[in-house]
Write a structure and sequence with these properties.
By secondary structure, the protein is of the alpha/beta class. It folds into 3 domains: 7-135; 165-234 and 390-572, 3-Layer(aba) Sandwich (Rossmann fold); 244-376, no CATH class. The protein is elongated, with a radius of gyration of 31 Å. The model has no long low-confidence stretch (mean pLDDT 85).
């Protein structure tokens, strides 16, 4: 290995040290010019280039973030004066220290930065060979306790002959976000990650939530299975997997009047389902007379027997699952519109309350419209027609996880945006996986799942859903996944062009970022607030990154690094190219 502190690569001295930036003094302006040494092209006068600093016992790798001349020398600056060998100019640069490394024995990057170079330390140009040394097996666990597969997804931007292999564990095990504006290469990065992961010989399970259908070419792979939701699809998210909160977001009951009626109707239908199942299991079981055609007819019937049955089956009735016949919900809401007790017999419910029925009429209309709307019906299997000849998503996932396929592509491109349908559907999917991984005894830890969510800004909500009555319904399944399922074996990978629209509770849990070009200052601020310390100045480069370039940073990586994503194979390439306005015939 060549000496990193070769005097032929000398460029200057450290003249000031702070925790944020280190200042380098160039004794002569000619030291900033491009030069050739031992087959390498070196240029230390360009912002974003790397330098090596020789310390006491440690070396330091830094990145130039600013180059300038002292104020008093700018008045005498001219092209001729600057080109002269004896030009009396003394430029300075600001360098952000990226990492420290031991200079004795094998050169290895040290995690964390607990010391800085002293004043007067010599500074050298960093050759691609040494940069590759620090980026080789990037983020790999050196303890030997973790078996790692490295993903060769990128190269150095300035020299594409030097590949960067990234630790899959470091990238995904603390959740990951791929961010960037349209055209920056975000979708290609996701496709390249998938391509690299499924080509590993070891078993892996990837869920790809495809919002736009741009990853449909991946479905042609033998290792991929596709679950298409919506009209014309092959699956549905069963409404029994919805929670009460999901149903409230779907049906928007008014808080003071309609919400209690809807809650009571759900309880009644759950009880009716339990009684019907008991009758199926035991032919001698007598179903109460007030249980008629799957509905509970309360008016004029005894309260005590109903309450006793509710207490007897409290665990099932109070569970989050909506295990009831949702097509019977409009009738059951009408059945709940009664007086609390009979005027002459307090042990019985009263008759129909016209005022309660009037107050619930808009809720009944909304429930009927949702059930009869094809988009809602086919997404959640609300009707027997919508469920016909289709398998529930739960069954498809169980088959996928127990089989040989590596990717389950979940296509929601046919799902509309009206009435927050997409958000509610995706949240219910997230809730399903949250419950599966939390309730599991630990089997998912042996083969974890990476859940890739494309166009996450369209599917998550920073604010709660509000209805016309100012009721708020929070869709927080993915926030809980980000906080609770990492140790259970479910890892998130979000792809978004608008990080500011991702709830902070989700974004703050991302342990790694692959950040492409970001122009909006609010997006950069969102990344800055969620990213590891020590990346402040590097993030200022985000607006100027070229197509396919990205900044990789994370808590398990020794330093942030610029990279260029490698070309994606044709069969994995996403359909995300922008149409040309004046394309030749």
């Amino acid at each position: 290995m060549k000496n990193p502190f070769d005097h032929n690569k000398f460029i200057g001295y450290v003249s000031r040290v702070t925790p944020e930036l280190t200042r380098v003094h160039f004794p002569n302006s000619n030291l900033l010019k491009k030069f050739y040494f031992d087959g390498d092209v070196l240029h230390s006068g360009i912002v974003r280039n790397y330098v090596i600093i020789e310390g006491e016992g440690y070396g330091f790798l830094g990145r130039i973030v600013r180059v300038e001349l002292p104020e008093k020398e700018r008045l005498f600056l001219s092209e001729a004066a600057f080109q002269r060998q004896d030009g009396n100019f003394h430029p300075t640069s600001e360098v952000e220290i990226q990492l420290a490394f031991s200079i004795f024995g094998e050169i290895k990057a040290k995690k964390g930065l607990d010391q800085y170079p002293p004043i007067g330390s010599r500074v050298y140009a960093c050759s691609p060979e040494y940069l590759e040394l620090f980026l080789k097996d990037f983020g790999k666990d050196e303890s030997g306790e973790v078996e790692d597969d490295l993903l060769e997804i990128a190269t150095l931007p300035q020299d594409q002959g030097y590949p960067i292999k990234i630790s899959a564990n470091s990238l995904f095990s603390r959740h990951c976000a791929v961010v960037g504006t349209t055209g920056g290469g975000k979708s290609y990065t996701v496709a390249k990650l998938i391509e690299e992961m499924i080509r590993k010989e070891k078993p892996i399970k990837i869920l790809l939530l495809d919002s736009t259908g741009e990853y449909k070419s991946i479905s042609e792979e033998d290792s991929c299975e596709t679950a298409t939701l919506g009209v014309g699809g092959n699956t549905f998210v069963h409404h029994k997997d919805l929670t009460e909160s999901d149903l409230f977001a779907l049906f928007r009951p008014a808080g003071q009047v309609q919400m209690p009626i809807l809650q009571n109707a759900i309880k009644s239908l759950k009880l009716a389902r339990i009684l019907e199942n008991k009758k199926i299991a035991d032919a001698t079981f007598q179903v109460p007379a007030y249980c008629q055609n799957g509905n509970i007819k309360k008016a004029g019937n005894a309260i005590g027997d109903y309450d006793t049955l509710l207490q007897e089956h409290a665990s099932k009735i109070n569970s989050e699952k909506a295990d009831f016949d949702i097509e019977k919900l409009p009738v059951q809401i009408e059945n709940e519109c009664i007086f609390p007790t009979d005027r002459y017999d307090l042990t019985k419910w009263g008759g129909v309350s016209d005022s309660a029925l009037t107050n619930a009429s808009s809720l009944i209309v909304r429930v009927k419209s949702r059930i009869n709307n094809n988009d809602f019906a086919f997404a959640f299997g609300l009707t027997s027609e919508a469920r016909q000849d289709k398998e529930s998503f739960e069954k498809i996932f169980n088959t996928f996880y127990g089989g040989d396929k590596k990717i389950l592509r979940i296509d929601i491109s046919n799902i509309g945006f009206e009435e927050n349908l997409r958000e509610v559907l995706v949240n219910s999917l997230g809730r399903y996986f949250l419950n599966r991984f939390q309730d599991d005894s630990g089997s998912f830890r042996t083969m974890p799942v990476i859940f890739i969510v494309d166009e996450a800004h369209q599917l998550f909500r920073v604010e709660k859903i509000k209805d016309e009555y100012s009721n708020e319904f929070k869709l927080d399944a993915f926030e809980r996944i980000a906080k609770e399922t990492r140790k259970k074996g479910l890892f998130l990978c979000l792809a978004t062009q608008r990080p500011r629209d991702i709830p902070h509770g989700v974004l703050s849990q991302m342990g790694a970022f692959i950040a492409h070009r970001l122009i909006n200052p609010l997006d950069r601020e969102a990344i800055m607030s969620a990213s590891p310390e020590g990346s402040k100045y590097l993030l200022s480069f985000l607006p100027s990154l070229g197509q396919g370039e990205a900044l990789l940073l994370g808590v398990d990586f020794p330093m942030p690094v610029n990279l260029r994503i490698k070309t994606v194979s044709e069969q994995f390439r996403p359909d995300s190219d922008t149409p040309k306005l004046f394309k030749r015939a």
